[in-house]
Amino acid sequence: MNIATILGLVGCFSMTVMAIYTSGGTIGTYMDLPSFFMTVVGSYLALFTFSSIPGALGMWRTFGYAMKMHDNNQKGVIQKLLTFSDKARREGLLALEEELEDLDDEFMKKGLRLVVDGNDAEMIRGLLETELNQMQERHGAKIKLVTMWGTLAPGLGMLGTVVGLIAMLKNLEDKSALGPNMAVALITTLYGAMIANLICIPVAAKLSGYDSDECKVREMEIEGILSIQAGENTRILAQKLLSYLDPVTRQQMEKDLDK
Question: What is the 3-state secondary structure (H, E, C) of the chain?
Answer without folding.
Answer: CCHHHHHHHHHHHHHHHHHHHHCCCCHHHHCCHHHHHHHHHHHHHHHHHHCCHHHHHCHHHHHHHHHCCCCCCHHHHHHHHHHHHHHHHHHCHHHHHHHHCCCCCHHHHHHHHHHHCCCCHHHHHHHHHHHHHHHHHHHHHHHHHHHHHHHHHHHHHHHHHHHHHHHHHCCCCCHHHHHHHHHHHHHHHHHHHHHHHHHHHHHHHHHHHHHHHHHHHHHHHHHHHHHHHHCCCHHHHHHHHHCCCCHHHHHHHHHHHHC
